[in-house]
Design a protein that fits this description.
The protein is 38% helix and 28% strand. It has a single domain, classed as Alpha-Beta Plaits, CATH 3.30.70. A hairpin with a 2-residue loop joins strand 6 and strand 7. By secondary structure, the chain is an alpha+beta fold.
């Protein structure tokens, strides 16, 4: 919780510079499941963590905040979301964020051996994402 407050303060500081900022919302979805019967499924929180690591490398000016996802300790997270704040008008940073999120999600799919279009129990087995 303290980390989210610190990151939110950093985003507020960026906004207060007078330069303005663009806030991107990252939403990551996967099949989720119970840790017992669905062991090996992709994990949306793991994909989000991979995406954050990629964002840190690709867009060092970005401020990441408000990460949350999953529902309980013994479940594979089916969702994750966080916000990324970049300087307004910095289209290169915004595009770098989108590329980094794609790379992070692809890395989680590859780690679990899942390809786009794979199905598991009647639902898509891969991580899907949006950045808005």
């Amino acid at each position: 919780m303290q980390l989210n407050r610190l990151l939110s303060a950093a985003a507020a500081a960026l906004l207060s510079t007078g330069l303005g900022a663009q806030v991107l919302t990252v939403d990551i979805q996967g099949p989720g499941g119970h840790s017992n019967g669905n062991y090996g499924n992709v994990n949306a929180v793991h994909a989000a963590a991979r995406a954050v690591m990629e964002i840190e490398k690709a867009a060092p000016s970005a401020v990441i905040s408000g990460m949350n996802g999953g529902v309980t300790v013994n479940a594979i997270a089916g969702d994750a979301r966080f916000t990324v704040t970049v300087p307004d008008g910095d289209t290169a940073a915004a595009e770098a964020v989108r590329t980094a999120v794609r790379k992070g999600c692809e890395a989680e799919n590859a780690f679990r051996g899942v390809k786009p279009g794979d199905m598991k129990n009647g639902v898509p087995a891969d991580i899907r994402w949006t950045v808005q």
